[in-house]
Amino acid sequence: xxxxxxxxxxxxxxxxxxxxxxxxxxxxxxxxxxxxxxxxxxxxxxxxxxxxxxxxxxxxxxxxxxxxxxxxxxxxxxxxxxxxxxxxxxxxxxxxxxxxxxxxxxxxxxxxxxxxxxxxxxxxxxxxxxxxxxxxxxxxxxxxxxxxxxxxxxxxxxxxxxxxxxxxxxxxxxxxxxxxxxxxxxxxxxxxxxxxxxxxxxxxxxxxxxxxxxxxxxxxxxxxxxxxxxxxxxxxxxxxxxxxxxxxxxxxxxxxxxxxxxxxxxxxxxxxxxxxxxxxxxxxxxxxxxxxxxxxxxxxxxxxxxxxxxxxxxxxxxxxxxxxxxxxxxxxxxxxxxxxxxxxxxxxxxxxxxxxxxxxxxxxxxxxxxxxxxxxxxxxxxxxxxxxxxxxxxxx
Length: 396
Ligand SMILES: Cc1cc2nc3c(=O)[nH]c(=O)nc-3n(C[C@H](O)[C@H](O)[C@H](O)COP(=O)(O)O)c2cc1C
Known about the structure:
Bound molecules: flavin mononucleotide
Structural class: alpha/beta
Number of helices: 12
Protein name: Flavorubredoxin
Radius of gyration: 24 Å
CATH topology of the largest domain: Metallo-beta-lactamase, Chain A
Number of domains: 2
Distance between the termini: 51 Å
Family: In the N-terminal section; belongs to the zinc metallo-hydrolase group 3 family.
GO molecular function: electron transfer activity; FMN binding; metal ion binding; oxidoreductase activity
Helix content: 25-40%
Largest sheet: 7 strands, mixed
Number of strands: 24
Mean pLDDT: 97
Strand content: 15-25%
Domain Flavodoxin-like: 250-388
Low-confidence stretches: none
Organism: Balnearium lithotrophicum
Shape: elongated
CATH class of the largest domain: Alpha Beta
Oligomer: single chain
């Protein structure tokens, strides 16, 4: 069902209620949506992005419901197929339409969708495209996810289409973020989206949050999840996430085969809490990596806890470390603890090599042979004290 955002601006996307995994990587506890929009000017009609190809039927039904007979422009804000994948079908149905995007996005769409070069109309940063009584304006937003991403602004209505930026994976029949049912979910799922997708680009995002402050949109319409009316609340949350500030919190992602490392984790957890630090131990065998990523957004420290396995760290620890290395959180301190049978140093080296892009201060690891004994607990107590003091120092 098409949904009205403002006069002449409609949501025409699709809701994927039971999708559980995105990019074969990211879990979707709330499903997701692919938000396409139409902007009906007095002279021209623009479609803003499309939907995942398996949902194209819903997009076409929504266009029919609005009795759209002609599409002049298909604006592509981002080349990824969950937004662009139905462009070839739209072009087939509306052959007179031009795909409007920047040069980089055009080149990517040609590669990803095998579109012909003459299907495109290129725009530059700040260029305007008149639709009659409405005008589109384009802002390039390179690396606000991919290198070709851009935003589309409807000047007269103060609506900003930001594609993945400020989006959230939520399937809901409610269009806006303003219902009580949506509010709680929106904050959480927008943070999850930031953690899993946007965190590596936090320095680029800072610049584009400033652009949003300048534009002062009434409505932000991203390409996943709900349409945002409470712009200040959501950009305020994003500003905190991309800032250099951290919470006095330690995440302990851990694996333990025979409980030795787990005893270390339990002891460290209680020591750190006694020192007034928030602690989140995550058993990686049972945890949703998205929840861990959400805490990576603002935790001051990460202590990775692993037994030595096959002359390295446990594979689940390496999976996590690899993701953390790619997500590049603002974590200030990092360390490793764990139990070994005959050589624990190889485990530490394995983790450190995997985390080479994380720019945090390394705290001396604590390695224990077999089960922790009283002298080992003393080492962990000292480790907890050192870490807590460092965190408190930067929190004041
Ligand atoms: C499959 C397997 C492989 C292991 N490989 C190593 C190894 O390469 N080097 C080592 O020092 N210990 C190795 N160990 C011994 C464990 O590191 C040791 O038992 C440790 O205390 C286990 O910690 P946990 O109780 O937290 O699982 C291995 C143990 C298992 C079960």
